[in-house]
Amino acid sequence: MLANELDDVDRRILNILQLDASHTNAELAELVHVSPPTCLRRVKYMNEGGIIERQVAIVSPEKVGARLTAIVEITLDVQAAERMAEFEQHVAAEAAVLQCYRVAPGPDFVLIVQVADMPAYHALAHRLFATRTNVRNVKAYFSTFRSKFETRIAV
């Protein structure tokens, strides 16, 4: 399913679900002004088409003890495809790594990491970077205040 296949009803459904995915089908149908069977069919179609990847709960990091956010730039020594994929698999296995991006130009990767505190970050850095022979450079930035956090994509 492609973005250009979405009509106004689909877009309204997506906007509401991105704000609160806990609505029942009947509530969602009422909010977008369609019948419940139509709403259910459209949501199912968007799920099967990959437009809706998954529905999750967004947890407050501070309230579960993950108070430190780090944005980490990684540069590898060797950027061959298999070495890049190997690094991605290595960091993907770490629960504290919330996001991993290959980027260009500049570093090879940017990671978003959420941990309890600085000792937890140091332990993570040792596990992920210090023991890897292909990691050339690590540069970390630590968030002092989060002024915006959004998961919603404008559709």
TrEMBL record:
PROSITE patterns: HTH_ASNC_2. One of its GO terms (biological process) is response to amino acid. Residues 6-67 form the HTH asnC-type domain. It comes from the Bacteria. GO terms for cellular component: cytosol. GO terms for molecular function: sequence-specific DNA binding. It holds the Pfam family HTH_AsnC-type. Keywords: DNA-binding, Transcription, Transcription regulation. Coiled coil: none annotated. PANTHER family: LEUCINE-RESPONSIVE REGULATORY PROTEIN, TRANSCRIPTIONAL REGULATOR AZLB. This is Lrp/AsnC family transcriptional regulator. It comes from Massilia atriviolacea.
